[in-house]
Amino acid sequence: MSHEFPTSTFTDVLDGNRAYAADFPGTGLSGRALKGLALVTCMDSRIEPLPLLGMEQGDVKILRNAGARVTDDVLRTLVLAAYLLDVTRVLVMPHTHCKMANATEEQIHQQILDDYGVDTHSVEFRTVADQEAALAYDVRRIRSYPLLPKGFVVAGAIYDVHTGKVSPRDV
């Protein structure tokens, strides 16, 4: 079964890439994390990970998902980053005013069912009733993961989408 690329739906994306590629000088980067940092943060488009941390392209491995949660896939990726891409530390950084922290699991399932008629109960969205507790849990999950190297440094912080400030947490 062949599926043709839906060019008309992605015109803005392809046009944007053509403009980008026309002046693309290449990066000369190896793909390794130059600052030894991995960042776990939310997919929220208000977050610009590199500038908000004072980093540049190539410095950081960025892992994004809804709510900045430490999932099995995040752990898998951190193992690869630690052993193959020079990552020695990770910052877990959820943010203020996150949809995943402002609704319950059931409310999100119900909203999607009401608005679109789709029953999403087969998916765990991992909403966050208490953002501080979830951050502490996720940091602890990484720290206790047996496949990560000894000495792997893990920290937590919350990014404020209205002020641009990152607030470290003792977790």
Plain-language structure description:
This protein has 171 residues and is an alpha/beta fold. The protein has one domain: Carbonic anhydrase (Beta-carbonic Anhydrase, Chain A, 3-Layer(aba) Sandwich), CATH 3.40.1050. The chain has 5 helices and 5 strands; from the N terminus they run αβαβαβααββ. The protein has a 5-stranded mixed sheet with strand order 2-1-3-4-5. A hairpin with a 6-residue loop joins strand 4 and strand 5. The protein is globular.
Mean pLDDT across all amino acids: 96
The main pleated sheet reads as: 5 strands, mixed
CATH secondary-structure class: Alpha Beta
**Residues in β-strands, percent:** 15-25%
By CATH, the superfamily comes out as Carbonic anhydrase
- Let me know the number of strands: 5
Query: Largest beta sheet: what is the strand line-up?
Result: 2-1-3-4-5
Helical residue percent band:
25-40%
Radius of gyration: 18 Å
CATH topology: Beta-carbonic Anhydrase, Chain A
Protein structure class: alpha/beta
Number of helices: 5
| Distance, first to last CA | 50 Å
Number of domains: 1
Summarize the structure.
It is built from five helices and five strands; from the N terminus they run αβαβαβααββ. The chain has 171 residues and is an alpha/beta fold.
